[in-house]
Specification:
Blueprint (H helix, E strand, L loop, with lengths): L6 H7 L8 H7 L3 H10 L14 H7 L3 H9 L14 H7 L3 H9 L13 H7 L3 H9 L13 H7 L3 H9 L13 H8 L2 H9 L19 H7 L3 H7 L14 H8 L2 H11 L11 H8 L14 H17 L3 H14 L4 H13 L3 H14 L4 H13 L6 H10 L4 H13 L4 H12 L2 H11 L5 H7 L8 H7 L3 H10 L15 H7 L3 H9 L14 H8 L2 H9 L13 H7 L3 H9 L18 H8 L2 H9 L11 H12 L17 H7 L3 H7 L14 H8 L2 H27 L3 H14 L4 H13 L3 H14 L4 H13 L3 H14 L4 H15 L14
Helix pairs in contact: 2-3, 2-4, 4-5, 4-6, 5-7, 6-7, 6-8, 8-9, 8-10, 9-11, 10-11, 10-12, 11-13, 12-13, 12-14, 14-15, 19-20, 20-21, 21-22, 21-23, 22-23, 23-24, 24-25, 26-27, 26-29, 29-30, 29-31, 31-32, 31-33, 32-34, 33-34, 33-35, 35-36, 35-37, 36-38, 37-38, 37-40, 38-41, 40-41, 43-44, ...
Pfam family, one: Ank_2
Protein name: Serine/threonine-protein kinase BSK1-like TPR repeats domain-containing protein
Keywords: ANK repeat, TPR repeat
């Protein structure tokens, strides 16, 4: 088979359908002598990849060939070279619980925290209950709280029903309350019915009163309700003594709880939660659903949920809502649930493909698009999705696919964009992406080589600033986020890049990225080499906010020593407020202890109408409350002077700010009332002795306060106060807008939103104010909220289009105007805006008669 090109090239060229060479086969079969011949005698690359990106070392690990793994690792095999989904040799060894191989790979430099589609090696081991593998990784300081996709190692081990792994992770510091999208470890254990794990989690500090999304549940059920629904009496007996009373259950006893959950009224309440207050798209009203499902209420979703059709409709609806919010990861989650319920619906595959595309994941976008084509080969949009995916993957073969879409459907606005980009704008070559990946992986030699390849005479420094991903992140941002300090040194010291470069998405600096990635060494180096710790992003978040939010004590000390401002303001307040809101007790204590010197944190500093004590009360952190009271926090504060806050924040930020109060808190309430509203007895007991009596409360005692805040009268008074506040704030906002005082108008509209967060007109008005102040990002946030609340309102889409135009994104602006015309076809303002946006983008006149195809 050697036709004169040499044996080495022949052995590389000859592959099977999966791209595997003789070296891959020899490694997988443990034929070390064949590997020696191919690598040592013929000089083949020990890191050859097949079509899925698997290396010979990966193949040998999967085949459990210890001797071959050892030889390859000692002769050029890179243990950190992952496949197309990021899986390295250590992931495979951990998944299969191969202790000896894991120790061997780690000794050869395998990265403990290597990321993949399935998470880190610790995620993989925990998911299959490999306790020995989990122990090895934890002994080498693997992060037990690492969130990958939607799971933590603890959540994985609970799903695997492995008590041993759960115990090991909790002892290593796993957070017993850390979940995703409202799915908590304790609720997961309750669903699994694992009483030993429930006990273990409670002992470690799991909160039994946190409700869980529980698949499709919007408002959620507590762990007690979940075990009760499953008739798990042992679980109920464990959780009952530690769970706060649930008002909807009339008889608060073991027998009463079980009877209620299995009664007609109990099932009715659960169904009420399931159907999300009767607001499903395309579903019937609550009473009708109850009648139709009365006999089948126990079916699916852990024997209590919805029939498949309803599950599909709800999941698809939630996916569409998430897509409108631009939360594409959440949308893929809901669309996946819809696909599980209905495997043959092409529109959902199409929608999920679009989400993957927006997340720049071409491989997954292509997989869903091809499934869509297989289901509906006569649908133009299916072929369009395939074309977009190929484009993302850097393959120039989408012209014929788009042409096919053109034949099958009338020209859509999306198709116009893609054809235009093909002709004029698209230059999506792989070296740019490889360069960013090399920075992220810390491959300095490859980074330099790719830099030379992409430099067209402007100089390396300018090239490295210009090459960015869709979020405006440069090689410096990627290197900082992954802790590749040597790459940062090369870019900043050798090439002279600005250490304070901001990305496009949020305005975060490399220092912010390094802090978010918990890369202590890189943070220290950047802070010592020109990085400004007080340079905030578009929301005002600095590195200290992120460190406080995550409770990273060492990083906080480092940043403060480098001049980070203790009282730096952000959308979410000061670092102290961020730490309090996330229950980071050590971080709160550290910031309050700084009071010993002149740069101390003020426990009464107000931001956005709330002081840190409000946040702590809302989060139920009684220890933090005690700490703040000891430091001098005022327990009687309800709100701060509006003008004082406004002037303070404007002076600090140098421009308009967003007064976005913490969503769970009601304006005008003391910390005591907030704690009582959350049924937090411990916090109420701490605050009651130091809080001045409130005249409207007839019984000023623990029981009296708890009864009053949850009484009809207490609720009525709060609702009246909120409505009065809403009407007054909206009126004052309109007055301020008329006199062109947009900052003042924004403040009053923000107060109106706090009182009534579902009023689309106020979001629309505030978006307009941000637009008048040239704040495109904030105008877009409000416009998207407006669209989510009233998707059938043309003005909402118009506001979104204006915001995109301010941000310089004409295609997205045109898309928003086009969506508006779908719901309001006669709107002249939208027609003119769409025409102007398309003409400005393409530089050619566009007829307003173009038919816009609705996305399915």
């Amino acid at each position: 088979m050697d036709f004169g090109e040499g044996l080495a090239k022949t052995f590389v060229r000859v592959k099977d359908a999966g791209g595997r060479t003789a070296l891959h086969f020899a490694a997988a079969g443990g034929k070390t002598h064949v590997c020696k011949y191919l690598v040592q005698d013929l000089g083949l690359d020990a890191n050859l990849k097949d079509r899925k990106g698997e290396t010979p070392l990966n193949c040998a690990t999967r085949g459990q060939q210890n001797q071959t793994v050892a030889w390859l690792a000692a002769n050029g095999g890179n243990p950190n070279l992952g496949n197309d989904k990021g899986f390295c040799a250590l992931h495979y060894a951990a998944t299969n619980g191969l202790k000896d191989l894991m120790q061997l790979l780690i000794s050869k430099g395998a990265v403990i925290e290597a990321e993949s589609d399935g998470g880190t090696p610790l995620h993989c081991a925990a998911a299959l209950g490999r306790k020995e593998a989990v122990k090895i990784l934890l002994d080498r300081e693997a992060n037990p709280n690492k969130v990958s996709g939607i799971y933590t190692p603890l959540m994985n081990s609970i799903s695997a029903r492995s008590f041993e792994c759960v115990n090991l992770l909790l002892k290593a510091g796993a957070d017993p309350n850390l979940g995703w999208k409202g799915q908590t470890p304790l609720c997961n254990a309750s669903v699994q019915g694992e009483t030993d794990i429930i006990k273990c989690l409670l002992k470690a500090g799991a909160n039994p009163n946190v409700a869980d999304i529980f698949w499709l549940l919007q408002d959620g059920l507590t762990p007690l309700e979940i075990v009760g629904m499953h008739s798990n009496l042992a679980g109920v007996m464990i959780l009952f003594p530690v769970t706060s009373r649930i008002p909807t259950i009339p008889n608060w006893s073991l027998d009463g709880i079980m009877k209620h959950l299995h009664s007609e009224e109990g099932r009715r309440q659960i169904l009420s939660i399931l159907i999300f207050e009767t607001k499903w798209n395309g579903l019937k009203m609550f009473e009708t659903v109850v009648c139709e499902l009365n006999a089948e209420i126990h079916a699916s979703l852990f024997n209590w949920g919805l029939k498949k059709k309803e599950t599909f409709l709800l999941a698809k609806s939630r996916g569409e809502e998430a897509f409108r919010r631009k939360d594409y990861m959440d949308a893929t989650y809901w669309y996946s649930l819809a696909i599980d319920s209905s495997l043959y619906d092409a529109t959902v595959f199409s929608n999920r493909s679009l989400c993957w595309a927006r997340l720049n994941d071409g491989s997954r976008a292509l997989s869903d698009a091809e499934a869509c084509v297989a289901l509906r080969p006569d649908w133009g949009k299916a072929h369009y999705r395939v074309g977009v995916a190929w484009k993302l993957l850097g393959v120039r073969k989408f012209s014929e696919i788009i042409s096919l879409e053109w034949k099958l459907s009338k020209p859509s606005l999306e198709c116009l964009y893609l054809r235009e980009s093909e002709l004029y704008a698209w230059n999506f070559e792989s070296p740019r992406h490889r360069l960013l990946q090399a920075a992220s992986d810390g491959k300095l030699k490859l980074l330099k080589a790719l830099g030379e390849e992409l430099d067209f005479g402007e100089g390396l420094a300018k090239m490295f600033v210009q090459v960015k991903d869709a979020g405006g992140r440069t090689a410096l941002h990627f290197a900082a986020a992954e802790g590749k300090t040597h790459v940062c040194k090369y870019l900043v010291q050798d090439l002279g890049l600005d250490a304070n470069l901001k990305d496009r998405k949020g305005g975060d600096t490399p220092l912010n990225h390094a802090t978010l990635g918990q890369q202590n060494q890189t943070v220290a180096w950047l802070a010592a080499n020109g990085a400004n710790p007080n340079l905030g992003n578009a929301e005002g978040f600095c590195a200290l906010h992120y460190a406080a939010e995550k409770g990273l004590k060492d990083l906080m000390r480092l940043l403060i020593s480098k001049g980070a401002e203790i009282e730096a303001e952000s959308h979410a307040g000061t670092p102290l407020q961020c730490a309090a809101a996330h229950g980071r007790k050590e971080a709160v204590k550290m910031l309050l202890d700084r009071k010993a010197n002149q740069a101390g944190a003020d426990p009464n500093l107000d931001s956005n109408g709330l002081n840190p004590l409000h946040y702590a009360a809302a989060e139920g952190e009684s220890e933090i409350i005690k700490c703040m009271l000891k430091a001098g926090a005022n327990p009687n504060v309800t709100e701060t002077s509006r003008k004082a806050i406004q002037q303070s924040l404007l002076l600090k930020s140098g421009g308009p700010v967003c007064f976005n109060c913490y969503s769970l808190l009601q304006d005008g309430l003391t910390p005591l009332e907030i704690a009582a509203l959350h049924s937090d007895h411990a916090a109420v007991m701490v605050l009651l002795p130091v809080t001045s009596r409130i005249p409207t409360y007839p019984d000023w005692s623990l029981v009296g306060i708890m009864k009053y805040v949850h009484s009809d009268e207490g609720r009525r008074q709060r609702e009246l106060k909120k409505m009065e506040m809403f009407l007054l704030s909206k009126s004052r906002g309109e007055e301020a807008f008329k006199r062109k005082d947009y900052v003042d108008a924004i403040y009053w509209y923000s107060q109106a939103i706090i009182a009534s967060p579902c009023d689309a007109t106020v979001f629309s008005n505030r978006s307009l104010c941000w637009a008048r102040l040239n704040e495109g990002s904030r105008a877009l946030t409000d416009a998207e909220a407006c669209v989510a609340l009233r998707p059938d309102w043309g003005k909402a889409h118009y506001r979104e289009g204006v915001a995109w135009k301010l941000l310089g994104n004409l295609p997205m602006a045109a898309e928003a105007f086009a969506e508006g015309l779908k719901v309001d076809p006669e709107n002249k303002e939208l027609k003119v805006a769409l025409r102007d946006a398309v003409e400005a983008e393409f530089g050619i006149p566009v007829s307003l008669g173009i038919r816009i195809i609705r996305m399915e």
